[in-house]
Design a protein that fits this description.
- By secondary structure, the protein is mostly helical.
- The protein has one domain.
- The longest helix has 70 residues.
- It is rod-shaped, with a radius of gyration of 29 Å.
Length: 148
Amino acid sequence: MSKLWDDLKDNMKEWGNAAVEKAEEVSKVAVAKTEELTKISKIKLDIHQLQRDSRREKEALGKLVYEQAKDDNMVNFTGNSEFFIHVEKISIISKDISEKKNEINRIKAEYNIQDTDLSDTIEDESVADEEIIPSELETPEGSEEQSE
């Protein structure tokens, strides 16, 4: 009976050790994955900020175009350095966003992170860059025509 008890005790120790080793392995994987998910979240935050910067630049460009067209009746921007500064900034920001998205894809591929592991907070670029024009914004001529 004591032989049976000793064998049972030894087996329990082996199973316990195996369980501890497996738990350590799983926790190491979980920690590594958590670190990578944190990196991805930080990059997504950077992308969101870049998208906001892009919208601001596009708004500034739109205001410039509107003012030039309205006040100076100018629609040709050849040689207008302010116009091209805005265009260049928008291009640089778009390139930065693309690089950040590629970095996320690289991390996901390297650590085998599925999209289901992430909550997708990156706005689709076409949606993020969409301009919303309130209906209240009308040209002065359009307002006068409606009031007549």
